[in-house]
């Protein structure tokens, strides 16, 4: 009997590991297509240069469409089966929408960028379900790192081919990446919802909203520098085409590889401060140095190394947040849409400062101002994320307690004013992970009445959020 259980456990572990490898490989090829072609990729720029056409409308259209796909995917993708369908269908449409780029520029180019931009955005957001189901929470930073590393390695290969060999060959290879991605996800099994996912589905309350909004704001502001980089720094070194085609993303890959293997005890905030120092160094170097090969190596190493630190930070945070809401596509899509929006806004800012002829020093001042804003945001962001993690652990502890132990916790913690009987009932349901709407159904009252009770509870415990309330009530508890 024990041997049978061990065999079943080994089979489950083996299947989960294979599924994790499939989802990482498939998403890496999808992301390589996006990076090399769609999202201001060198394959697309090489095609534009080949035909001598304008980029004024094409590039922003693709980015805006990609943003919309990321932001809206969670509205109609709510489980893994739908996620698999949207990924396969979206990649198929991307494949078809890319075909017109083998021919001279036409209105089909604009249409193809919009269609592939939106569909690829939906596919990226839908991947959140696969990341959540097949990668344990503490391992998601490694899965995210693997995706970013492998996709950028493939992107470098496609860039080198497109810039030094033939844009059309590069385009064909990017389409082959899409085909590989479709094959990997077609092979991906559909798993039943696990017990953990069922518990998570009940926890759709507002505890995640404040940390997610703050994280999105942080992502948006810090990635403005990425947009500035595309429009200001990269053109300044366009005479180094051969070097740029392969070295551009190398520091990004190296930074992520280093972070992937760091101890989990290493503080995130410390790593982010290192990244911010690197960005400051990149823009100061761009302002003070020339435009030689050595100067490019310094500026690009600092800038892209910092980008690798920041990207892995919020990718891994979003990966952890997937356990706090049943709709993984919504959480993952909204988080990454903030990244895209930041790049878009930074690109517009870059074009503006370029058009008015600002000097390198003035551009550096703008970039450093952005860094200073993010430095101010970092402490409250860390506090919100830490509070969210504590509240989640507290809910797990509370769920394992007996009814008498649960009641004892509510009685033991002092309040400014005593809770009413109804407020105690609402509090118990909050600690069960239920949202306001579910509490209203359970108690047969209106949702607005629940909100009033919740506000009263917050006031009596002197807290401002569910996460803070749960942390206050359960801070003295330890996991059994």
How would you sum up this structure, described in words?
- With 480 residues, the chain is an all-alpha fold.
- It has 3 domains: 1-192, MFS general substrate transporter like domains (Growth Hormone, Chain: A); 200-392, Growth Hormone, Chain: A (Up-down Bundle); 400-474, Arc Repressor Mutant, subunit A (Orthogonal Bundle).
- 80% of the residues lie in helices and 0% in strands.
- It contains 20 helices and no strands.
- 46% of the residues are buried.
Total number of helices: 20
Count of discrete domains: 3
Low-confidence stretches: 1-14, 194-206
Rg is 24 Å
Helix content: over 70%
Shape: globular
CATH architecture of the largest domain: Up-down Bundle
Report mean pLDDT, rounded to a whole number.
81
Largest β-sheet summary: none
Distance N terminus to C terminus?
28 Å
Per the CATH scheme, the topology name of the largest domain is Growth Hormone, Chain: A
E-strand count: 0
Order of helices and strands: HHHHHHHHHHHHHHHHHHHH
Strand portion: under 5%
């Amino acid at each position: 009997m024990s041997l049978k259980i061990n065999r079943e456990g080994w089979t489950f572990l083996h299947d989960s590991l294979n599924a994790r490898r499939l989802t990482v490989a498939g998403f890496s090829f999808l992301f390589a297509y996006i990076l090399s072609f769609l999202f201001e990729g060198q394959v697309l720029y090489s095609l534009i240069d080949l035909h001598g056409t304008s980029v004024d409308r094409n590039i922003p259209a693709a980015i805006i469409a990609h943003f919309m796909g990321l932001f809206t995917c969670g509205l109609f993708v709510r489980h893994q089966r739908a996620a698999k369908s949207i990924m396969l269908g979206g990649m198929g449409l991307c494949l078809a929408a890319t075909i017109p780029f083998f021919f001279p520029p036409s209105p089909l180019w604009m249409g193809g960028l919009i269609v592939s931009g939106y569909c690829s955005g939906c596919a990226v957001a839908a991947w959140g379900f696969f990341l959540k189901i097949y990668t344990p929470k503490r391992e998601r930073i490694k899965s995210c790192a693997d995706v970013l590393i492998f996709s950028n390695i493939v992107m470098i290969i496609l860039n080198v081919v497109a810039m030094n060999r033939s844009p059309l060959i590069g385009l064909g290879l990017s389409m082959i990446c899409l085909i590989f991605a479709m094959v990997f996800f077609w092979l991906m099994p559909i798993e039943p919802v696990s017990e953990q996912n069922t518990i998570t589905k009940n926890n759709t309350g507002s505890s995640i909203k404040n940390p997610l909004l703050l994280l999105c704001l942080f992502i948006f502001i810090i990635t403005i520098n990425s947009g500035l980089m595309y429009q200001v720094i990269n053109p300044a070194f366009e005479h180094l085409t051969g070097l740029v085609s392969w070295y551009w993303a190398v520091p990004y890959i190296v930074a992520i590889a280093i972070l992937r293997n760091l101890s989990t005890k290493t503080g995130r905030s410390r790593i982010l401060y290192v990244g911010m120092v690197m960005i400051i160094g990149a823009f100061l170097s761009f302002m003070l140095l020339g435009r030689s090969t050595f100067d490019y190596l310094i500026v690009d190493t600092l800038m892209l190394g910092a980008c690798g630190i920041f990207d892995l930070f919020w990718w891994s945070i979003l990966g952890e947040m997937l356990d706090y809401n049943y709709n993984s596509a919504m959480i993952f899509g909204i988080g990454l849409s903030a990244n895209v929006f930041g790049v878009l806004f930074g690109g517009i800012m870059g074009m503006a400062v370029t058009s008015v002829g600002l000097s390198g020093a003035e551009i550096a001042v703008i970039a450093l101002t952005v860094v200073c804003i993010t430095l101010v945001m970092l402490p409250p962001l860390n506090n919100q994320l830490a509070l969210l993690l504590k509240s989640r652990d507290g809910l797990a502890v509370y769920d394992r307690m007996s009814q008498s132990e649960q009641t004892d916790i509510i009685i033991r913690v002092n309040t400014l004013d005593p809770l009413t009987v109804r407020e105690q009932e609402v509090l118990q349901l909050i600690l069960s992970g239920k949202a306001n709407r579910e509490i209203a159904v359970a108690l047969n009252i209106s949702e607005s009445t629940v909100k009033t009770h919740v506000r009263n509870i917050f006031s009596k415990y002197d807290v401002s959020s569910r996460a803070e309330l749960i942390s206050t009530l359960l801070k003295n508890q330890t996991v059994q």
